[in-house]
Amino acid sequence: MDNTCLIVAVLVTSIFLLSSSTIFLYRKRRSCRRSPIPLPLGTLGWPFLGETISFISCAYSDHPETFMDQRRHMYGKVFKSHLFGSPTIVSTDAEVSRFVLQSDSKAFVPSYPKSLTELMGKSSILLITGSLQRRIHGLIGSFFKSSHLKAQITQDMHKYLQQSMENWRDDHPIYIQDEAKNIAFQVLVKALVSMDPGDDTKFLKKQFQEFMAGLMSLPINIPGSRLHRSLQAKKKMVELVHKIIEAKRKNRGRSEVAKDVADVLLNDASEELNDDLISDNMIDLMIPGEDSVPVLITLAVKYLSDCPAALQQLTEENLKLKRLKDELREPLCWTDYLSLPFTQTVITETLRMGNVIVGVMRKAMKDVEIKGYLIPKGWCVFTYFRSIHLDQNLYDSPYQFNPWRWQNREMMSNYSSIFTPFGGGQRLCPGIDLARLEASIFLHHFVTQFRWVAEADSIVNFPTVRMKKRMPVWVKRRI
Questions:
Q1: 461 φ/ψ angles, rounded to the nearest 5 degrees
Q2: Predicted local confidence at residue 419, as pLDDT
Q3: Rounded to 5 degrees, what angle do the CA atoms 321, 327, 330 make?
Q4: What is the pLDDT of residues 330-375, one digit of tens each?
């Protein structure tokens, strides 16, 4: 509780020092009153602080969507607020959120906390807009969908997973979150720059953890500050990756088949895709290896541990596949893992309940009207996925882990427009298929090689989703 209070105090102080001035806010209010299109209902809260304290307090609770649900009950699914120093339109409406996500940079651009934008840099794929963003996103997305990379991911995932599982013992707990992070990071670094596990990978991971620690820090860059240490860590990582990029450029031709993401970007003839931009983005693309994919795997194990019926069906499905492959004396390929229907419903339901990506923030570049409401130029829009994914009007018993809900094809068709676990539009996460593949591989080998008993653990939802105790389980090998 003391740590929570400290973090809240730090964030409040940051907001007080860095938020928009009162004059600016009053001007915004006056300009909105002159508009014939009404703002959504809601309140901007306290001067400077807005409603950020209330939002953070709820975010640390077991039900972080409470902040949204209370205001949605009072004002509707779209309402105005003031969060993290900016006047904000909050959307818990699937149609409005989809409109924002599908819009181009003429209407909305990414908006992130200042500490994160400083760490990412202006050339980050998370921040750039226009044709350059579309080209980089398209190049990476095409490579991530390639059968070549999926085959490599499957081989690497199996290799690193087996190396890890060989050391698992039944006389002390295994921390699933730590294991998943270590494996996923190695797999992703291999896919990005063809770096095999070794001293460089250990160095990179250590610096990357230092880098990640500053994403939600005070935006004060002075020696000794959290942000400064994270920036120094990123500098060291960029230097290492830059050397890899330089070596690749010297030792290869443009016609060479791309083995990793760095090769894909190097093959592009554009002068905009220089070595500095490529190196910076390799670091940004490592975030899923430390965050999204490991959390997806960990939450799946958590939910399965709490739902014996789902665990039994998933185990039977995977054991059946394993026996078939053993009889044929064939190794499992990536299509085998993704063809397991119930395993995929478990992953989908984990994404719905876990909300690894809780939502996204955009900044309006002009006045935008949607469903009769005004989103003023300069205001932020917070599309909050969690409220949509846990809406009882959209999902029966939304807080119940029920992978069987995804077996109904008609229901899945209805969900397709409201289910956005990886965002949407031009910035849809390009690693959707790879995240599912890695989770499928982990679950397959876990349930076919081990039985386990999970210790009690709880989910922490802020500032990122994770398990409080790192998901400890006691394993016993299957005979």
A1: -110, 0
A2: 93
A3: 75
A4: 999 999 999 999 999 999 999 999 999 999 999 999 999 999 999 9
In one-letter notation, the amino acid at residue 398 is: P
pLDDT digits (tens, 9 = 90+) for 166-184: 999 999 999 999 999 999 9
238: closest CA among 285, 191, 170? Answer: 285
**Contact (CB, 8 A) for 52 and 14:** no
Distance CA 273, CA 263 (A): 12
Report d(CA 452, CA 439) in Å as an integer: 18
Buried b (16+ CB within 10 A) or exposed e, 370-406: beebbbbebbbbbbbbbbbbbbeeebeebeebbbebb
User: What predicted TM-score, i.e. pTM, was given to this entire model?
Assistant: 0.91
Q: Which amino acid is at 397?
A: S
The mean pLDDT of 68-90, rounded to a whole number, is: 95
pLDDT band at 16 (very low <50, low <70, confident <90, very high): very low
**Mean pLDDT along residues 373-400:** 95
Q: How far, in Å, are 42, 312, 344, 398, 413 from residue 407 at the CA level? A: 38, 17, 10, 16, 11
C-beta separation of 364 from 377 below 8 A: yes
Judge: domain 2-119+355-395, CATH 3.30.43.20: yes
